[in-house]
Amino acid sequence: MSKIDDLQELLKKLPGIGPRQARRFVYFFLSADENYMSRLSSLINDLRSDKKICSFCRRVHFDSISGELCPTCSDTSRDQSKVLVIEKNSDFENFERSGVWDGRYFLILKNVGLTEDDPSARLQLDRLKTSIESGQTSEVVTALSVNPDGEYTTEYIHKSLTPLVKSHNLSISALARGLSTGSEIEYADSETLKNALENRK
Amino acid sequence: MSKIDDLQELLKKLPGIGPRQARRFVYFFLSADENYMSRLSSLINDLRSDKKICSFCRRVHFDSISGELCPTCSDTSRDQSKVLVIEKNSDFENFERSGVWDGRYFLILKNVGLTEDDPSARLQLDRLKTSIESGQTSEVVTALSVNPDGEYTTEYIHKSLTPLVKSHNLSISALARGLSTGSEIEYADSETLKNALENRK
Amino acid sequence: MSKIDDLQELLKKLPGIGPRQARRFVYFFLSADENYMSRLSSLINDLRSDKKICSFCRRVHFDSISGELCPTCSDTSRDQSKVLVIEKNSDFENFERSGVWDGRYFLILKNVGLTEDDPSARLQLDRLKTSIESGQTSEVVTALSVNPDGEYTTEYIHKSLTPLVKSHNLSISALARGLSTGSEIEYADSETLKNALENRK
Amino acid sequence: MSKIDDLQELLKKLPGIGPRQARRFVYFFLSADENYMSRLSSLINDLRSDKKICSFCRRVHFDSISGELCPTCSDTSRDQSKVLVIEKNSDFENFERSGVWDGRYFLILKNVGLTEDDPSARLQLDRLKTSIESGQTSEVVTALSVNPDGEYTTEYIHKSLTPLVKSHNLSISALARGLSTGSEIEYADSETLKNALENRK
Fold first, then answer.
1. Domain range spanning residue A37?
2. D40 and D71 share a domain?
3. Do A157 and D155 form a contact (C-beta atoms < 8 A)?
4. Complex confidence, ipTM
5. pTM for the model
6. Minimal CB count within 10 Å: which of A113, B84, C158, D90?
7. Residue C101 main-chain phi, psi, to 5 deg
8. Of the partner residues C13, C40, C48, the one whose CB lies closest to the CB of residue D44
9. A90 at the D interface (CB within 8 A)?
10. Is the pLDDT score of B1 beyond 80?
11. Is residue C25 a part of any domain in this protein?
């Protein structure tokens, strides 16, 4: 039954899925109808063949009309001078759903690990710097998750862009730290209480 | 982005997967490499096109040599006079992994719901009866889950086969009720304690 | 604030309670009203001072009228020739709530650990043997949880009592193994499937 | 066995404890040793009889030397002109453990519910106002949990104190909203993203 085992192996790689649930998925497929299976197979194939990567923000999109840029990066109704540095496609989607950002995005795809050697090329900050130097971008905001990798990456990016603050009148900032929705004072960590106190207003 | 939404819809149908995790799967696919995606797509397609249904036990298999019967049903080293009635393919796999049954199987695909109208045709008990009447099968054991549907189905099948007990010297039984591995006396339900006491040995 | 810390330490010993929840209990006490606190303190004190241990089954009870025996052991409407060997007070309560046993009980207080040296005295099987030898008890059923300690203890007790089977016409048995309420065939372990098949009926 | 039932009833009132776990606690008590039980009973009794309420901050403490004020409120090494408005004793403890606040506290004991009629007396804001009017307090920071009641209470307190801002040069603020430790951009809610963007720095 090696095809079943092969499929289970692939499904085990899905986020949060162990061998047992991967097996349940296979069984689900075994009893799924013809139509479901052929649609699933071809959609997965399409995702592979049709996906495009934006030449500025590196976001995955499926727009075939816009050129090298994704629809968001080429949308002139947005404030193209502001860039929000985020980690990944799902962060983009959450910000868009929230409707709180009207500038462009810049994806780094994966936060820098504390032991990563030379992340500069991987983050492709050069493209961001070029955009600043050309006068296209005048404000950069980092919006990374609050965990060791995210905080280290924030620091790394701020340090890399600091020389451009004076020379190109760049504004750099990071999302504020404080109490998030649902925070309970009784259980909040020291770092959060400290930031929430310092930024009180 | 309708292909992404379509794929999320299909993935939401997987057992135990809600909209949020389905979306995470889509994002995983977006950043998966070419090779992973094409293998996944073609394996899912193969599963659809290559699967066979055994003409006796109704189990899904992928054996292309054996004829109408699956390898288990045509295995003459097994005791072909005994049939274990189970619900589904994953139950088959669990019994085979346990190595505790050396007869044939008979899948009903889904337990009978308490409100199901005329389950007889759906369960295809006629094929089982034919096998009993022809002298091929002399013992039937029901092995269904212990929940309302499973218990109702057990009762339904036993009742359907009862006329054959005398006429064809058929032996019918059900898996025993009692303490299963991990049962704690403190938390066991009355039904389990009652059965475990009655069957004490 | 050492009384608060001391109380937290004691509350941490409650089953399933960690330091954090123990602290929450202390805070609950701090804002509880006078009446709650004095009732709690005195009930806990009463539990300590009023509890009695049955001289046969070793169960805790609070009956002040019956003599050395608990109300259950002295209840002549029950079948006093049958004894159910259980581990602890909460097992007793679960059996009584189920209403499936009408004999006496015998508590061993804690199952035998696999590395326990000489459990014989601790289990006080001598009292049980005396009761068998005197003709008072003619059937013993062990009802212990299905885990390594419980299974080892079951074996130990059966072995200890075996000599009395012939000499005193003793009947010994254990609760049956099989599918308990809620068991799903797909997820059942081999041992449970094996027992459920062997005991099929 | 009514004392057991009574005790279970009292233990069910503990935060996060249902009837089943309350029963387990009772069983734990039944088999606990004499010493544990008498210490527990007397500590609970002491908590009741020895507790003091600070006449300024309303915090529970056990200090018998300081007069009407708790040790924190009477500690002259702290900045006594600043007051942190918190909900409860455990919030106090969390701030003290964090070491991020060096002023006084003011407990309101319970956030105002959205349907609460006239919370003014219950919150005892008059005592806080008196302290501001007398020149003792010049800064008030509200530090309440971020949920509907907490946010409503924050608004209520700020509105109540606003008249004193000009007349007594009072500074009022609330803990900042933003990303707390562990926040993931992918899952952050709109409100948190909005606040974190607005307060970016």
1. 2-50
2. no
3. no
4. 0.89
5. 0.78
6. A113
7. -130, 130
8. C40
9. yes
10. no
11. yes
